[in-house]
């Protein structure tokens, strides 16, 4: 592969100048030269930074984004939103799922994500029967990732409707498996992934509402090689209260008591954690998957990020319900939530990185890459060359001192400052455009009309 050259690049130790990257034929970075000459290298048109992992996506929910903002009742909540979501989920055909997912992944590339973990719980036909090909819908997700984004597919075990093994509701029938059918599905997806270069498979549990302790143990024992384990947890106060009523413990506390959480575990949301849970998660190196725009949209609450980061906690960011598909929006709202709570400015910095945007970006890229088992996350030897190139010609970057570059993008510029997106040394977006975007967009438009007008 042709070497790449950037006048400015964000390396693990900070910004470097005149950086030349030598890649192998798989797009892995094999040599990094600073203060180098471009000689024979392809010159990137702006500052280069590592690509971002999207640690939590339900791509099909893009169809619903912005359509649940009309008040239904005086007490609209996560739980009333979920009813609208179930109505949509129960109508999608495999073709529609693939089309919507591919469009959402295109938007992710545009928003600065170079890989995505799809938390995939839609498994069966609308009446709950398995498809003739058990992994039909998971294969639609795999097909949608053909636009070049790195994909970590997380088939989700979902068995129950509430703590203590409650029977599922009819609206959940497309999601439901027991351990045996789940492991068969997992095997089928493993075969479907085959030798795809940017695809990774990992187990996921919907939540402590949806699975039992024995089920988690059975799945983990059957998949000892799993590098990533994802689960929604403590997103809503009502969920915390229900968990306490059932077990006498809070959800994260319950999990910490029973499982040896480590860096393989990614806890999605963890919004309602107390100080002790926060410290233990950080100490055990478990990663928290934060989705600030979704958590704001659904009225979940505010994660105690200041305390968690000060304790050395690791995190990634996700677009979850797809109400926003933008790295800048997630990181901005992560910081703003803390500011609104503390009534102060600049909360999520560290002595080593006083720039809020840079601190958040570097930590989210590193933690997110680990959480989804994709080999990007930093511009370093042995990592995949997943890169975002900011627009060096954009007026907002003119004369911008290096320490403010990421803040200019994340707090003020947004998506318009993204000029190129690279995955594994291949340029997927140039001047903000993907070569297949016309067809992908037209197909999405057709499906949206079918589903929203039908
Ligand atoms: Zn979710």
Explain this structure to me?
This protein has 454 residues and is of the alpha/beta class. It has two domains: 4-49 and 383-437, Roll (Urease, subunit C, domain 1); 51-372, Metal-dependent hydrolases (TIM Barrel, Alpha-Beta Barrel), CATH 3.20.20. The chain contains 14 helices and 17 strands. Strands 6, 7, 8, 9, 10, 11, 12, 13 and 14 form a nine-stranded parallel sheet that branches. The protein has a four-stranded mixed sheet with strand order 3-2-1-4, with no helix packed on it. The chain has a four-stranded antiparallel sheet with strand order 5-15-16-17, with helices on one face. β8, α4 (179-193) and β9 form a beta-alpha-beta unit. The radius of gyration is 21 Å and the shape is globular. Residues 56, 58, 119, 232, 268, 320 line the site of zinc ion.
Helix-strand layout with pairing:
Layout: E1 4-11, E2 14-23, E3 29-33, E4 42-43, E5 48-50, E6 52-57, H1 78-89, H2 94-111, E7 113-120, H3 136-144, E8 150-157, H4 179-193, E9 199-201, E10 204-205, H5 213-222, E11 229-233, H6 237-247, H7 251-258, E12 265-269, H8 275-283, E13 287-290, H9 292-297, H10 305-310, E14 314-317, H11 327-342, H12 356-372, E15 387-390, H13 405-413, E16 418-423, E17 426-430, H14 437-453
Parallel strand pairs: 1-4, 6-7, 7-8, 8-9, 8-10, 10-11, 11-12, 12-13, 13-14
Antiparallel strand pairs: 1-2, 2-3, 5-15, 15-16, 16-17
The protein binds zinc ion (ZN).
């Amino acid at each position: 592969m042709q070497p790449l050259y950037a006048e400015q690049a964000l390396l693990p130790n900070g910004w470097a100048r005149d950086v030349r990257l030598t890649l192998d034929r798989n797009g892995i970075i094999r040599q990094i030269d600073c203060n180098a000459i471009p000689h024979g290298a392809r010159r990137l048109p702006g500052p280069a930074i590592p690509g971002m992992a999207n640690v939590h996506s339900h791509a099909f929910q893009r169809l619903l984004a912005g359509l649940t903002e009309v008040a239904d009742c005086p007490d609209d909540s996560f739980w009333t939103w979920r009813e609208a979501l179930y109505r949509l989920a129960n109508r999608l055909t495999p073709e529609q799922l693939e089309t919507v997912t591919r469009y959402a992944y295109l938007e992710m590339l545009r928003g600065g994500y170079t890989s995505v973990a799809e938390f995939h719980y839609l498994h069966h036909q609308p009446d709950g029967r398995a498809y003739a090909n058990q992994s039909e819908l998971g294969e639609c997700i795999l097909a949608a990732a053909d636009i070049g984004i790195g994909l970590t597919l997380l088939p989700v075990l979902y068995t129950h409707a509430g703590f203590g093994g409650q029977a599922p509701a009819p609206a959940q029938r497309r999601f439901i498996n027991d351990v045996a059918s789940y492991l068969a599905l997992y095997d089928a997806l493993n075969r479907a992934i085959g030798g795809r270069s940017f695809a990774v498979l990992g187990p996921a549990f919907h939540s402590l509402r949806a699975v039992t302790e024995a089920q988690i143990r059975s799945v983990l024992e059957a998949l000892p090689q799993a590098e990533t384990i994802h689960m929604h947890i403590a997103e809503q106060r009502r969920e915390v209260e229900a968990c306490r009523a059932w077990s006498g413990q809070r959800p994260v506390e319950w999990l910490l008591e029973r499982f040896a959480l480590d860096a393989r575990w990614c806890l999605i949301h963890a919004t309602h954690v107390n100080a002790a849970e926060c410290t233990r998660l950080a100490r055990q190196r478990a990663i928290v998957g934060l989705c600030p725009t979704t958590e704001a949209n659904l009225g979940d609450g505010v994660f105690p990020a200041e305390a968690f980061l000060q304790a050395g906690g690791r995190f990634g960011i996700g677009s979850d319900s797809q109400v926003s598909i933008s790295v800048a929006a997630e990181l901005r709202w992560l910081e703003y939530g803390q500011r609104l709570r503390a009534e102060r400015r600049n909360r999520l910095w560290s002595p080593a990185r006083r720039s809020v945007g840079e601190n958040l970006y570097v930590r989210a890229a590193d933690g997110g890459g680990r959480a989804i088992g994709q080999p990007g996350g930093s511009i370093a030897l042995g990592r995949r060359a997943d890169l975002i190139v900011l627009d060096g010609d954009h007026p907002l970057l003119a004369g911008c001192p290096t320490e403010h570059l990421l803040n200019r993008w994340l707090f003020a510029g947004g998506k318009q400052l993204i000029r190129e997106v690279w995955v594994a040394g291949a340029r997927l977006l140039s001047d903000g455009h993907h070569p297949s975007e016309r067809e992908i967009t037209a197909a999405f438009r057709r499906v949206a009309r079918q589903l929203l007008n039908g």
